[in-house]
Amino acid sequence: MTTSDPLADMFTRIRNAAAAHHVEVKVPSSRVKRAVAEVLQQEGFLRGISEVTEGPRDYLKLDITYADDRKAILSGIRRVSRPGLRVYVSKQEIPRVFGGLGIAIMSTSQGVMSGREAWRRKIGGEVLCYVW
Hints:
This protein is about 25% helix and about 35% strand. It is built from three helices and eight strands. The protein has helices at about 5-20, 30-40, 115-120; strands spanning about 25-30, 45-55, 55-65, 75-80, 90, 105-110, 110-115, 125-130. Strand 6 and strand 7 (about 110-115) form a beta hairpin. It is globular.
């Protein structure tokens, strides 16, 4: 199956797995997806990331983080920039998600990073998604 927006597909798989209380989710692997998953892991939304090969395909196995009450730490994820409408921001326009409770994941000239990290480094870029 091919999708026109692989990142949106990844976000939907993660959102659905968290809503269904799955411990892990598999998504087709790519460099950008791996970089986004690493940011999610650094921010505490994912417990772990591992590479899995099944036949000719490579997958990322993402372990979702849950609180003590069996509720996922990741309660929402929304794609911002998409193939039909790219959203770029300068260093002064980096968005705050839910007043700082969530994060924006950005693709910058120095790689994929959280909005907070991009603000610290004083660089802008493409806003990939909001996570809360």
